[in-house]
Amino acid sequence: MIRIAVMGASGRMGKMLIEAVQATDDCTLHVTLDKGDDVRAGLAGADVMIDFTRPEATLAHLAVCADLGVKAVIGTTGFDDAQKAEIARFAERTAIVFAPNMSVGVNVVLKLLDMAARALAEGYDIEIVEAHHRMKVDAPSGTALQMGQVVADAVGRDLKSCAVYGREGVTGARDPSTIGFATVRGGDIIGDHTVLFAGIGERIEVSHKATNRTIYAQGSLRCARYLASFTKGNGLFGMNDVLGFNT
Ligand SMILES: NC(=O)C1=CN([C@@H]2O[C@H](COP(=O)(O)OP(=O)(O)OC[C@H]3O[C@@H](n4cnc5c(N)ncnc54)[C@H](OP(=O)(O)O)[C@@H]3O)[C@@H](O)[C@H]2O)C=CC1
Ligand SMILES: O=C(O)C1=N[C@H](C(=O)O)C[C@H](O)C1
């Protein structure tokens, strides 16, 4: 049995994860932890921590995982570059899967985007539109940013210098080298992402729409199983590794 620790247990994803673990026959809930609980005591003896919380909390939890040798699945989004570098440092001491979207579908879409962007590198304007529920605190979504990164890499652009995060006022004509991001927040939208390649005479839209958070919980359990069967002590992995897309 894989002993799972669920962090942010009373959050939207925390609740889904608890249900998902309870429905398996190869994982068991070692502990469920909320803000204010004793993280070190709770994580002791766990095989894998699954964390969908906030960047600062995740980093504090990872520090304990690294000390105790607990492996970690990180679904939290909204990390800045320095915080991502901290995750990489923790991965020198324990094994971590870090992915802004655990759904199989989104990770297949990332592959499709790489192919589409290579074919449409010239003459097509690239815009990424994402929509989420009213409670989401970070923007653009981690998934939208990862989609932007995949597309930018495929067309040979530096995302940091070509990304445009929203437009207002007299913006002038569109610079063809940019990759635009637009964010929608409202109601209970679980997570919609579209990458638009807009050319003259046609446009291509690659979309993913989530209709249930179970996709993220099931993906997280795949990550936990991947880590549990991983015999080396440390390393930083993504969904590509878990889904075997790198082999
Ligand atoms: N990778 C993926 O596939 C997915 C990623 N996500 C990401 O997961 C994260 C959580 O999303 P969601 O479940 O909707 O958010 P919620 O706000 O519903 O849940 C977050 C949980 O984390 C807890 N938390 C916040 N701060 C701390 C802290 N300092 N210490 C301990 N616990 C803390 C919250 O507690 P409290 O309410 O008491 O503050 C809450 O229980 C987000 O970053 C989201 O983008 C979401 C879905 C899929
Ligand atoms: O906050 C959410 O809900 C989600 N967050 C992730 C992100 O930022 O990409 C994944 C998914 O879209 C749901």
UniProtKB/TrEMBL annotation:
Catalytic activity, reaction form: (S)-2,3,4,5-tetrahydrodipicolinate + NAD(+) + H2O = (2S,4S)-4-hydroxy-2,3,4,5-tetrahydrodipicolinate + NADH + H(+); (S)-2,3,4,5-tetrahydrodipicolinate + NADP(+) + H2O = (2S,4S)-4-hydroxy-2,3,4,5-tetrahydrodipicolinate + NADPH + H(+)
Residues noted as binding NAD(+) in the record, renumbered to the chain: 8-13, 34, 75-77, 99-102
Residues holding NADP(+): 35
Keywords for the protein's UniProt record, in alphabetical order: Amino-acid biosynthesis, Cytoplasm, Diaminopimelate biosynthesis, Lysine biosynthesis, NAD, NADP, Oxidoreductase
Entry-linked PROSITE patterns: DAPB
Cross-referenced Pfam families: DapB_C, DapB_N
Domain Dihydrodipicolinate reductase C-terminal: from-to ranges: 105-243
Main location: cytoplasm
Localization, UniProt: Cytoplasm
Residues the record lists as binding (S)-2,3,4,5-tetrahydrodipicolinate: 133, 142-143
Subunit structure: Homotetramer.
Task of the protein: Catalyzes the conversion of 4-hydroxy-tetrahydrodipicolinate (HTPA) to tetrahydrodipicolinate.
Protein name: 4-hydroxy-tetrahydrodipicolinate reductase
Species this protein is from: Pelomonas candidula
